[in-house]
């Protein structure tokens, strides 16, 4: 195994950061003396420090003639200026120039809002209303807190920008490598492994480790940042897919007959004979489930925390060799030869949904990290992007000269497609927008046919497995710049990993909770509620919550005769009945209007005076 | 028999004063008769032993029980019984019936049971005490009604329970707010009573501590410079005072007082309302008269005591006069007066009533002269001793004379603020100058004229304002200006003239206002006249502006219309494309369209290198054809699959027809359509499928039972609809989704207890109740008259206002 460009010693960006932070904390009086001494605004040194803080992103240190890879520090700078008042000369007379809590931008807080206030609630009693108000106030407070903590996400994603109308797709990897700093340049490498045939590869959740398996039995795992090899074995069997389990210590390999699990030393831990002829593997990290799709047409869910097969679902669609997972709701997407993509949950025997995507068979499926978009490519040479939010309709489509055999979404929504020996990458406008298929963002030609694509989490790197080995290419702006240190920390130690493992196991989500809309779990089970209510009414013989029937009040002076009582009762009854009729009448014209409206041509501005 | 003896005895008594010497004889006779009687009784008894005795003896007893005491009777009975056996029958011999020779002297001793002594007979005639007591008892017994039956035990208990319940519930109800508060509290910390943080003397704190940072040093410098007590007295006097200012008790007392006052006020209000409702005319007449008398009295006293207040009173009278003049109240022009006028010819009373009205009118309007006369006198007095008039009077007038607040407000909306400020600044000046002028007795004629003009204007203004706003209380008076007497008389004379020339002057003023308007816009004129003219002008201008505004309004109304329409038109294009979009959505999306979207092929820079590059074109075509065929198949298959899924998910109808029931059955015979229709129970239509309008999608409608097991299926207490509850659980509380602070806040325990502390039950003092549980209001309600004098005064003041 050899690494193509300089494998040279890398300085961990973490260290940089630590160094930056290790500085002795300055006291305010010290700062005062300094500022009075230098008389300089606090702007420039800040900026410099920012640069220091983000060395691992590809950035424009040298002026590149052809292209520019840069960051946008404007917004950050602005906020910094806003936060940094001028140092006061006299301490005793100092006033807080920004009294009160820091203002929070509304749209940021809106992002964290969970309660949909547009939905109207039925009338609630004062007691209930007070509870609702408390809940709403809490939500608002929490969202504001969350928005405020956004400030801690200091890192910004990188990007690639062509010089005045220049196509970024023309920029090749060599240019990028030349432009970026040495630590980032070291992330681009090629592994020339022509001997053991096309490779499948997988990054661990933290993005620190890389595992790859060649079709001719070559299985290897390494810390790809330091290029430190963990294990390298040959399983002497065809390897169809390879995947890390919850941590980099466990490795699942789909071999020709059975599914095997190895540890990071290359020692075989398990051989799962119930999962045979597995073609694709997916690991659901929060549920600790390993989903396997087999040639026999079965989708099997294996709980790796207890080693039990939770569900084996027959897809009834022949051989399964296209599979991906939706990271948002842990639903597994399977592509079939009849052009459909089916969505599966271990709790339900049938597919949750079936989408007809292509005329020919589906060759590849990918779902973005927010669970909003699905990209499919079929035998009809089309690449389509579907909206997964309830409608499952195609948003955009594109015919490719030779159809994409492999697809992958990055954390920030970049779409990579492997077509033959070429990798194309499309980017969207922002994070939440689908990739626009008009112009590719990057292209790269490889030395062999693509066999596996995987974006590295938290690094602007795309790993491509092909017949000629492995290529790690730089894709600026692909990954999330800020990682959650408690969730998936690329720099974690062994001890930290062990602790995280325990916590993750404690927070394991039961497999039966997987469904299309995870927010539906926070709803009341209306059907059983109704059922229980009905049963209760049956048991009691009456409805305890029903409105009491009208009972006329007794009146004096002979007006409480039976006849008048009946009369009054009837009056009320009639009124209620009239209300009902009125309501139904009101609804009818609405329906009619709805039916009638589509036929009408452009409505005139004067129409409002007709009613 | 006893009765008889008693009678005799009574007769004897009566005779006593007359014949004492008879006594011995009487005694003998009595003895004789007794023996005889006993013997006869015995004989009788022996005769009809069994039959008669039981009859007789009760009879005898009942006969003469009348007024003899029971004891004696009882004894007698016993003796009678015991005498039945023959031993001591003699002893018990008794006369059973009155002897034939009963005289008023045959008195027996048997009756009284005590010996008769001479002394007794000698005593003066009076009712014996023993008899009196008996009588008393008798009357008592007679007067006493029959005692009522005591209540049922259950009922008594029930009443007791009710009373006890009411008491305890009342006593407990004071805890309600606290209980509610605690229930709604986000967090309760026990023990409730917090130990007060002890005041650590500053010197303790200071001793082990030195000012190190510059800020601290600076602060200490400042403290030392100001001689702030750093060490010795912990609190400065001011702080102490502020601490002492109002204790909790005091505050509570104050609150209670306020409550009391409020309650009282409401009672007074209620009373006033009640009195107002009384329809009796006489009552009101009396009331009015009383009031007038009272006011007169008060006024007189006021005049002596407080002349300024009296003046104010006079002003009020003046106001009444003005009101009278304003209204047609007593002019005999109303409905009632007209009807009376018809009757007046014949009806003396009606005539009188009308005259009364007129007299009243006259009286009210005449008041002016009286008042003015008095004023004049006062004015002269004032003139003589200017010092007598307190400044307050003038000031009050000034404020009264000042611009009508209503007008000012209106004005401010039109004019600029600066102008108003100028007005307010400048207005007082001329009045002051005017005063000085009035003081100075040598005035030029021109000045006088100017003054008169001013008054004229003011009067005009007032009248106009009166006309304009009837509701506006006409309290703005000026006749009582402390200016000179002459001016007043002049004014009076002028006012008549003015009334005539009212119209003309107004017109003139409109024109003048118009001329002045630009000047005003330019800036304040230094001269007096324009300044004084300003107010009326402004009113005019206001009117004009209103008119203008109205005109402008039309314009405005017209103006925004097109704009609005324009906006709407602008909106419409937005809407109209929007509508078709919806339309499209509602329409069935064509599957073919979805799958055969014309998509531009990529002209990629890097065309993938393939092994068979040369015959790519051919292969492409082949593939396209193949795929087209396959595609058709794919679509049809999918549609069929979808149809099947839809069918399977539909609720099934129930068919209850029995073939051959009620008609012929057999092979080849089917039950009639009518019958089938009759016995087919249609299943209720379920909700529309989610994929109804999505041709390329099959969404499974089956419920995920495993997930449902984790869902909430019971609505917790205060919620009545599941949507309400869902809203409260929509925010996740885990640390994965929240910041650390938020997470901690969301998961704070509802109850916090301090380890090692005893949680004592809640006490009234802890939550701010005094030990006396009764609230102040309840006391007031019971006896509203027990109030402090201060409150009463306060209330009176309020009611007067």
TrEMBL record, chain A:
Residues 45-75 have a biased composition (Basic residues). Its main location: nucleus. This is WD repeat-containing protein 46. WD repeats lie at residues 355-389. GO terms for cellular component: 90S preribosome; small-subunit processome. Residues 1-85, 538-611 are annotated as: Disordered. It comes from the Eukaryota. The gene is WDR46. Residues 7-19, 572-583 have a biased composition (Basic and acidic residues). SUPFAM superfamilies: WD40 repeat-like. Part of the small subunit (SSU) processome, composed of more than 70 proteins and the RNA chaperone small nucleolar RNA (snoRNA) U3. Interacts with DDX21, NCL, NOP2 and EBNA1BP2. Residues 440-518 form the BING4 C-terminal domain. Scaffold component of the nucleolar structure. Required for localization of DDX21 and NCL to the granular compartment of the nucleolus. Part of the small subunit (SSU) processome, first precursor of the small eukaryotic ribosomal subunit. During the assembly of the SSU processome in the nucleolus, many ribosome biogenesis factors, an RNA chaperone and ribosomal proteins associate with the nascent pre-rRNA and work in concert to generate RNA folding, modifications, rearrangements and cleavage as well as targeted degradation of pre-ribosomal RNA by the RNA exosome. Keywords: Nucleus, Phosphoprotein, Repeat, WD repeat. GO terms for biological process: maturation of SSU-rRNA from tricistronic rRNA transcript (SSU-rRNA, 5.8S rRNA, LSU-rRNA). Gene3D superfamilies: YVTN repeat-like/Quinoprotein amine dehydrogenase. It is found in: Nucleus, Nucleolus.
TrEMBL record, chain B:
Its main location: nucleus. Residues 51-72, 365-449, 461-535 are annotated as: Disordered. It is found in: Nucleus, Nucleolus. The keyword Phosphoprotein applies. One of its GO terms (biological process) is rRNA processing. One of its GO terms (cellular component) is small-subunit processome. InterPro entries: SSU_processome_Utp14. The keyword Hydrolase does not apply. Keywords: Nucleus, Phosphoprotein. It comes from the Eukaryota. Signal peptide: none annotated. Belongs to the UTP14 family. This is U3 small nucleolar RNA-associated protein 14 homolog A isoform X1. It comes from Hipposideros armiger.
């Amino acid at each position: 195994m050899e690494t193509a460009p300089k494998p040279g010693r890398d300085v961990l960006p973490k260290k940089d950061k630590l160094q930056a932070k290790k500085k002795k904390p300055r006291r305010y009086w010290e700062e005062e003396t300094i500022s009075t001494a230098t008389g300089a605004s606090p702007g420039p040194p800040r900026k410099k420090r920012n640069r220091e803080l983000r060395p691992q992103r590809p950035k424009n240190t040298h002026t590149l003639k052809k292209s520019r890879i840069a960051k946008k520090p404007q917004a950050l700078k602005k906020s910094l200026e806003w936060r940094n008042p001028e140092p006061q000369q006299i301490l005793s007379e100092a006033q807080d120039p920004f009294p009160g809590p820091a203002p929070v931008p509304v749209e940021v807080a809106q992002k964290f809002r969970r309660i949909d206030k547009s939905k109207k609630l039925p009338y609630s009693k004062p007691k209930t209303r007070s509870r609702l108000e408390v809940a709403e106030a809490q939500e608002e407070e929490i969202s504001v807190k969350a928005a405020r903590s956004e400030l801690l996400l200091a890192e910004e994603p990188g990007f690639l920008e062509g010089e005045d109308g220049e196509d970024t797709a023309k920029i090749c990897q060599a240019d990028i490598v030349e432009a970026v700093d040495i630590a980032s340049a070291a992330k681009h490498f090629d592994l020339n492994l022509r001997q053991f045939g096309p490779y499948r590869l997988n990054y661990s959740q933290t993005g620190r480790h890389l595992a790859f398996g060649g079709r001719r039995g070559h299985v290897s795992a390494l810390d790809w940042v330091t290029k430190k090899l963990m294990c390298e074995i040959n399983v002497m069997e065809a390897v169809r897919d390879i995947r890390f389990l919850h941590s980099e210590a466990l490795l699942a390999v789909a071999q020709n007959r059975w599914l095997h699990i190895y540890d990071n030393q290359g020692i075989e831990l398990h051989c799962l004979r119930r999962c045979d002829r597995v073609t694709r593997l997916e690991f659901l990290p929060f549920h600790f489930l390993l989903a396997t799709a087999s040639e026999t047409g079965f989708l099997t869910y294996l709980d790796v925390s207890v080693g039990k097969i939770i569900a084996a679902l027959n897809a009834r669609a022949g051989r399964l060799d296209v599979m991906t997972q939706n990271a948002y709701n842990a639903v597994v997407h399977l592509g079939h030869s009849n052009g459909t993509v089916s969505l599966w949950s271990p709790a339900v025997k049938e597919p949750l949904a079936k989408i007809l995507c292509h005329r020919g068979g589906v060759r590849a499926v990918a779902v973005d990290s927010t669970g909003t978009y699905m990209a499919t490519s079929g035998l009809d040479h089309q690449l389509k992007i579907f909206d997964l939010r309830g409608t499952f309709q195609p948003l955009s489509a594109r015919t490719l000269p030779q159809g994409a055999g492999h697809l992958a979404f990055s954390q920030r929504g970049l779409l990579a497609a492997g077509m033959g020996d070429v990798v194309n990458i499309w980017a969207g406008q922002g994070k939440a927008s689908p990739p626009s298929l008009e112009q590719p963002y990057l292209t790269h030609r490889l030395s062999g046919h693509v066999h596996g694509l995987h974006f590295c989490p938290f690094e602007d790197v795309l790993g491509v497995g092909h017949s000629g080995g492995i290529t790690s290419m730089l894709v600026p702006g692909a990954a999330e710049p800020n990682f959650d240190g408690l969730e998936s920390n690329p720099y974690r130690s062994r001890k930290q990993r062990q602790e995280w493992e325990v916590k993750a196991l404690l927070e394991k989500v039961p497999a039966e909770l997987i469904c299309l809309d995870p927010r539906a779990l926070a709803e009341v089970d209306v059907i059983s509620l109704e059922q229980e209510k009905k049963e209760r009414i049956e048991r009691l013989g009456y409805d305890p919550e029903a409105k009491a029937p009208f009972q006329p009040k007794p009146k004096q002076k002979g007006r409480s005769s039976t006849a008048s009582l009946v009369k009054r009762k009837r009056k009320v009854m009639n009124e209620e009945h009239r209300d009902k009729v009125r309501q139904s009448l009101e609804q009818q014209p609405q329906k009619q209007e709805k039916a009638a409206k589509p036929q009408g041509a452009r409505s005139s501005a004067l129409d409002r005076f007709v009613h | 028999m006893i009765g008889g003896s008693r009678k005799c005895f009574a007769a004897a008594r009566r005779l006593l004063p007359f014949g004492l010497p008879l006594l011995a004889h009487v005694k003998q006779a009595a003895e004789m008769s007794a023996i005889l009687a006993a013997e006869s009784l015995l004989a009788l008894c022996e005769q009809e032993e069994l039959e008669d005795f039981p009859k007789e003896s009760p009879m005898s007893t009942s006969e003469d029980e009348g007024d003899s005491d029971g004891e004696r009777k009882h004894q007698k009975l016993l003796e009678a019984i015991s005498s039945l056996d023959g031993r001591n029958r003699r002893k018990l011999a008794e006369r059973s019936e009155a002897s034939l020779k009963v005289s008023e002297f045959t008195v027996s001793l048997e009756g009284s049971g005590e010996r008769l002594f001479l002394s007794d007979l000698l005593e003066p005639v009076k009712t014996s005490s023993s008899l009196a007591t008996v009588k008393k008892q008798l009357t008592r017994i007679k007067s006493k009604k029959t005692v009522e039956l005591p209540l049922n035990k259950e009922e008594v208990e029930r009443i007791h329970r009710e009373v006890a319940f009411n008491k305890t519930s009342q006593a407990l109800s004071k805890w309600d707010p606290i209980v509610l508060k605690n229930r709604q509290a986000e967090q309760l910390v026990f023990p409730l009573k917090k130990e007060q943080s002890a005041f650590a003397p500053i010197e303790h704190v200071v001793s082990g501590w030195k000012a190190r940072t510059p800020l601290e040093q600076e602060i200490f410098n400042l403290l030392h410079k100001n001689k702030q007590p750093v060490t010795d007295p912990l609190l400065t006097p001011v702080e102490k005072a502020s601490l002492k200012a109002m204790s909790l008790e005091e505050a509570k007392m104050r609150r209670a007082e306020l409550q009391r006052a409020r309650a009282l006020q409401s009672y007074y209000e209620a009373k006033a309302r009640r009195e107002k409702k009384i329809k009796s005319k006489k009552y009101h007449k009396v009331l009015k008269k009383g009031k007038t008398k009272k006011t007169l009295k008060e006024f007189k006293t006021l005049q002596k005591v407080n002349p300024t207040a009296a003046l104010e009173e006079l002003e009020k009278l003046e106001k009444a006069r003005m009101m009278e003049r304003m209204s047609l109240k007593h002019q005999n022009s109303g409905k009632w007066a007209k009807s009376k006028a018809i009757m007046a010819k014949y009806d003396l009373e009606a005539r009188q009533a009308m005259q009364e009205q007129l007299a009243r009118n006259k009286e009210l309007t005449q008041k002016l002269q009286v008042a003015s006369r008095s004023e004049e006198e006062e004015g002269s007095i004032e003139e003589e001793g200017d010092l007598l008039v307190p400044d307050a009077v003038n000031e009050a007038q000034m404020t009264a004379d000042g611009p009508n607040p209503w007008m000012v407000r209106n004005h401010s909306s039109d004019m600029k603020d600066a102008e108003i400020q100028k007005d307010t600044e400048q207005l007082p000046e001329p009045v002051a100058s005017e005063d000085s002028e009035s003081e100075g007795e040598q005035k030029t004629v021109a000045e006088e004229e100017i003054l008169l003009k001013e008054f004229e204007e003011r009067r005009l203004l007032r009248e106009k304002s009166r006309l304009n706003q009837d509701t506006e209380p006409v309290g703005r008076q000026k006749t009582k200006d402390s200016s000179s007497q002459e001016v007043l008389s002049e004014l009076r004379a002028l006012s008549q003239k003015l009334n005539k020339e009212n119209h003309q002057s107004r017109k003139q003023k409109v024109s003048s206002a118009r001329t002045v308007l630009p000047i005003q816009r330019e800036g304040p004129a230094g001269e007096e006249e324009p300044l004084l003219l300003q107010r009326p002008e402004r009113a005019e201008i206001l009117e004009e502006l209103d008119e203008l505004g109205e005109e402008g309004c039309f314009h405005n109304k017209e103006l925004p219309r097109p704009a609005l329409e324009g906006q709407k038109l602008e909106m419409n294009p937005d809407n109209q494309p929007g509508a078709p979009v919806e339309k499209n959505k509602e329409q069935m999306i064509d599957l073919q369209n979805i799958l055969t979207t014309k998509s531009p092929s990529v002209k990629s820079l890097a065309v993938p290198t393939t092994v068979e590059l040369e015959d790519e074109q051919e292969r492409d075509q082949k593939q396209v054809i193949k795929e087209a065929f396959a595609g058709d198949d794919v679509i049809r298959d999918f549609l069929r699959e979808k149809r099947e899924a839809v069918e399977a998910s539909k609720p099934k109808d129930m068919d209850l027809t029995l073939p051959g029931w009620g008609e012929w059955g057999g092979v080849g015979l089917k039950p009639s359509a009518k019958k089938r229709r009759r016995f087919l129970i249609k299943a209720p239509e379920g909700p529309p499928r989610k994929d109804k309008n999505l041709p390329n999608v099959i969404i499974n409608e089956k419920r995920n039972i495993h997930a449902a097991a984790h869902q909430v299926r019971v609505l917790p207490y205060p919620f009545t609809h599941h949507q309400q509850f869902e809203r409260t659980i929509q925010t996740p509380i885990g640390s994965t989704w929240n910041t650390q602070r938020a997470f901690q806040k969301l998961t704070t325990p509802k109850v916090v207890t301090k380890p090692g502390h005893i949680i004592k039950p809640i006490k009234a003092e802890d939550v701010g109740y005094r030990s006396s549980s009764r609230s102040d209001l309840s006391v007031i309600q019971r006896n509203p008259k027990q109030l402090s004098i201060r409150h009463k005064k306060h209330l009176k003041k309020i009611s007067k206002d």
